[in-house]
Specification:
Order of helices and strands: EHEHEHEHEHEHHEHHHEH
Largest sheet: 8 strands, mixed
CATH topology of the largest domain: Spore Coat Polysaccharide Biosynthesis Protein SpsA, Chain A
Low-confidence stretches: 324-338
Distance between the termini: 54 Å
Mean pLDDT: 83
CATH superfamily of the largest domain: Spore Coat Polysaccharide Biosynthesis Protein SpsA, Chain A
Bound molecules: uridine-5'-diphosphate, magnesium ion
């Protein structure tokens, strides 16, 4: 029999007890269909990453893993955010499979796009981006803010694929190289293109969330955009410098004007312009300091080399604790009780 690639579907889950029971069977169905079509190996798996959920998500994942051989789960020691959860899953998968597909667990991304993704991989692509062709099912507010997000990213020099979220196929080969990106502030959408290798796109329609609610309110979107920009580009600094030069020129003109007004004996006008200059320069300085501060802050964080994720449990490993002594006091008390 001809060899087929082993696929691992990586699914980040944060407080998804409502939606997971609905979507998990969909992932399993897709996996078996892809295997039946002869596109992937029968040893393919779905890997759920519990991102420190506060609800029953991890219990559900553990149960899925018990009931289905194809289901696996890892649990992060605490909530670390979507990007870190996806990265944790991908890094866990990279030595155990040939290809990964990361997808949200809420059923918004069309699973049928996976057929085409795997097809493109078989044809030679190492990365396949899932791109939303329409956003009609999102609210007007979500669409507008999302568009603003991409515009801002591009304007600030961060290279991202338009309307591509984190639904993508990445080969194990690319993941080996992605692992070398040791930064702590991660923005996968910007990092994957940096790794390189042949890439393709697949278009799909985005549906509404099957259950539960979105974890990406406007506040988190702005934080993601800001993180993306400052992680990928130094354009804000350049921009601030440009602004600085522009405002200084305006200030110079104002100063000449103020001097002329003073010579003419019009002191009130002179006072106004001075106030203008002070305000302008003060403003510029504050913004510049703020932006510079962001980069310094990031440098500080990067130098710490903190782990990006810590796995506290795996479904395929027994949750046992090793005691220093076999005859530990705890065991003895348990014996007494029984
Ligand atoms: N998610 C996560 N950690 C978080 C927030 C979200 O792992 O801190 C997961 C979530 O379970 C989902 C995916 O990331 O599978 C996308 O989140 P969501 O659907 O809430 O975002 P939206 O699609 O509304 O942008
Ligand atoms: Mg979603």
């Amino acid at each position: 029999m001809e060899a087929r690639p082993v696929l691992w579907i990586v699914v980040p889950c944060y407080n998804e007890e409502k939606v997971l029971p609905l979507t998990a069977p969909m992932f399993l169905k897709k996996l078996s269909q892809l295997a039946e079509d002869g596109k992937i190996s029968r040893n393919s798996r779905v890997l759920f990453v519990n991102d420190g959920s506060g609800d029953r998500t991890w219990e559900i994942i553990r149960q899925l893993a018990e009931e289905h051989e194809e289901c696996l789960g890892i649990c992060q020691s605490r909530n670390r955010g979507h990007q870190n959860a996806v990265l944790a899953g991908l890094m866990e998968a990279k030595d155990r499979c040939d290809i990964t597909i990361s997808i949200d667990c809420d059923g918004q991304d069309d699973l049928n796009a996976m057929d085409e993704m795997v097809e493109k991989y078989l044809q030679g692509a190492e990365v396949v981006y899932g791109v939303r062709s329409r956003r009609e099912t999102d609210t007007w507010f979500k669409r507008t803010t999302a568009l603003a997000f991409y515009r801002l990213m591009h304007g600030m020099g961060a290279e991202v694929v338009y309307n591509h979220a984190d639904y993508r196929l990445i080969s194990a080969k690319v993941l080996q190289h992605l692992a070398d990106f040791e930064e702590v502030n991660i923005f996968l959408r910007g990092m994957v293109p940096l790794v390189g290798f042949p890439a393709e796109t697949v278009y799909y329609e985005r549906n509404v969330r099957l259950a539960g609610k979105s974890h990406y309110p406007l506040r988190k979107m702005i934080a993601l955009a800001f993180n993306g920009i400052t992680s990928l580009s130094v354009k804000p600094i350049t921009l601030i410098t440009t602004f600085g030069i522009g405002f200084s020129l305006v200030g110079l003109i104002l100063m000449i004007w103020a001097v002329i007004q003073a010579i003419l004996g019009n002191t009130v006008a002179g006072w106004t312009s001075t106030v203008c200059i002070i305000c302008l320069l003060g403003g510029i300085q504050l913004i510049s300091l703020g932006v510079l501060g962001q980069y310094i802050g990031k440098t500080y964080l990067e130098t710490k080399h903190r782990p990006r994720y810590i796995i506290s449990a795996r479904t395929w490993e027994k949750e046992t604790r090793r005691w220093i002594e076999d005859d530990s006091p705890r065991e003895r008390t348990e014996e007494k009780q029984t």
